[in-house]
Amino acid sequence: MEKIARVFIIGWDGAGNFVKDAHTPHLDRLIRTGTFTFDAQTVSPTISAQCWGSLLHGVGPEKHGLTNDIASEHAFPEQSQYPSIFRIVRDNMPDAKMAAYSVWNPINDGIIESTIDVHKVSMNDRELSLAAAEYIKGNPDVLLMFIGLDLPDGAGHQHGFNTPEQLLAIEETDESTGIILQAIEETGLLKDSLIIVVSDHGGGGEQAYQHGSDHPLDKTIFWGCTGPGIKHNATLQGELMITDTAAVVLHALGLNARSWEAKLPEGLFNP
């Protein structure tokens, strides 16, 4: 496998797979160079803490135990048998530089462990993308970075999911992603970075302004990545789950997953 020096995860909260209907030139650029699917599946219930928790911990909600209320009020248990990817990296690479920039603060405070020296920042979407870009420029030795953007979810709750108003929010999120990608490129990190872009859930399935159900509009998400050793426009075998993101990250960094539900998508990496 070609050497991957670091991993960036860029999350678009509430975007589902509605990106197909929006003008997203920065995402499209990544799609052209990597492997993407618009039919990935998230976990049930289709709620942010359950979904981001599954992405970052590699197991479903019944194991990681996270809900929005729990993540908002409590730090993730340090001795959990289902650690986050950040914990696993820290345990194996004590000096690794890691960061989490998230508009929705419970990701930083309640889903990622609090005592493992992860640089954490929370602010609104545009400010967050600018701050994340500055961090990347000043810390080109970062190994793992999560960036969570929130506008699509907010627009979905206010205007309805997969509506013209939400598509505008998705397009603004693409612009924020472009700021981050520009920093990665200007810092010379593009050639040996794995970049994953993913949504946690969709919405509008059973209720136009909500999510949480098992309706396909709630459960179907886009997921993709590009970087060294990633096949271009690969046909992935089997159903890709949001939990599989954790396995992709650890494989890219040369680490092994523990007893996770996360599986490495067959056909994603070059032999």
Q: Which key terms come to mind for this protein?
A:
271 residues, alpha/beta, 7-stranded mixed sheet, 11 helices, 7 strands, 17% strand, globular
Label the structural class. alpha/beta
Shape: globular
- Gap between N and C termini, in Å? 6 Å
Strands ordered across the widest β-sheet:
2-7-6-1-5-3-4
* Spatial extent as radius of gyration: 17 Å
Q: What's the overall average pLDDT, rounded? A: 96
The percent range for strand residues is 15-25%
Oligomeric description of these chains: single chain
Number of strands: 7
Tell me the series of helices and strands, N- to C-terminal: EHEHHHHEHEHEHHEHEH
Biggest sheet, in brief?
7 strands, mixed
The level of helicity is 25-40%
Summarize, please:
The protein is α/β, with parallel strands linked by helices and 271 residues long.
